[in-house]
Amino acid sequence: MVQKLIKNPELKCPICGSTEFIYNEKTAELVCAKCGYVIEEVPYLGKEYRTINSEDAEKLSRTGSAMRYTNIPSMISTEIGKAESKDEDIALSRKLKKWQQRSTSSYERNLKLAQQELKRISSFLQLPKQVEETALKLYLDAVEKGLIRGRSVETVIAACTYIACRIHDVARTIDEIVKASNIHKKELGRTYKHLLQALKIKIQPIDVTEYVHRFSSLLNLPPEVVSTAIEIVNKAKESDITAGRGPAGVAAAAIYLACVKHGIQKTQKDIAEVAGITEVTIRNRYKEMLEKLNLKDIEAKMNNVEEW
């Protein structure tokens, strides 16, 4: 029976007035050390144990760390280490490692490959942790339903990453995913649509202002330019000229017009490189905005842009 003596000046025994109690951790009872009276309502006593080292913490903790999908590949796979002592041990470790690799299932190998590819794409695009978690969960769902047959692991994990970005409203274009994964755009698009239909995922369009903030940050633009670009985007939404247009192109055109208004020398090429689109797309979008949004003040300054 685990017991410990507790001295609490704020708590007194109603029978003898003692402030010393014995706490039984197994039964969660608090007993007066002098008269043996059992306190009916045990107050909060802080931690139920004292952690001395990491081993005690693992043994005494009631739960482990939070469940993460990105930890699953390392949990199911076992790596046999390399012996460095005797020649016999080294030969044995090589044999065991060889048989371990042969006995590893294709599921484990593909899952490990998927995690490695996801880490690489995430690092390249600087994606937050929640996107990684969602992407790997989507991959596991796709594996469970047999949706990856006939498709490479790299293509499926790239599509899952793009879906996860859309779910969490992380502004990443499909062209950026293509650049990070080295997957052909048509193949990635087909896999993306197939997963959406098979997994019954409904994706809401990403707000164009998310792209405005991201592109402006990469271009190191001042706050007044960002505010103006967002105003232009909002006017474009009200005039319904963003429907059927790529959000990256709309955001890039709005940023370009905002730079013109405030005299910030950013060329269409500079913005196109950051947005991952062509200069032609920016020109088409900003011409529509000038025509339909009545941006006379910006249109008047367009003549000076040729001098940049």
What does this structure look like?
The chain is built from 14 helices and four strands. The protein is mostly helical. The protein folds into three domains: 3-60, Single Sheet (N-terminal domain of TfIIb), CATH 2.20.25; 106-198, Cyclin A, domain 1 (Orthogonal Bundle); 208-307, Cyclin A, domain 1 (Orthogonal Bundle), CATH 1.10.472.10. It has a four-stranded antiparallel sheet, with no helix packed on it. Helix 4 crosses helix 7 and helix 9 (208-218) runs antiparallel to helix 10 (223-238). The longest helix is centred in the middle third of the chain and has 20 residues, at 106-125. It starts with a strand and ends in a 7-residue tail after the last helix.
Secondary structure elements and their pairing?
Layout: E1 3-7, E2 20-24, E3 29-32, E4 38-39, H1 54-60, H2 72-76, H3 87-103, H4 106-125, H5 129-144, H6 153-167, H7 174-181, H8 185-198, H9 208-218, H10 223-238, H11 247-262, H12 268-275, H13 279-292, H14 296-301
Antiparallel strand pairs: 1-2, 2-3, 3-4
Give a brief description:
56% of the residues lie in helices and 5% in strands. The protein is mainly alpha-helical and 308 residues long. It has three domains: 3-60, N-terminal domain of TfIIb (Single Sheet), CATH 2.20.25; 106-198, Cyclin-like (Cyclin A, domain 1); 208-307, Cyclin A, domain 1, CATH 1.10.472.10.
Q: What distinguishing features does this structure have?
A:
single chain; 308 residues; mainly alpha; N-terminal domain of TfIIb; Cyclin A, domain 1; 3 domains; four-stranded antiparallel β-sheet; 4 strands; 56% helix; extended
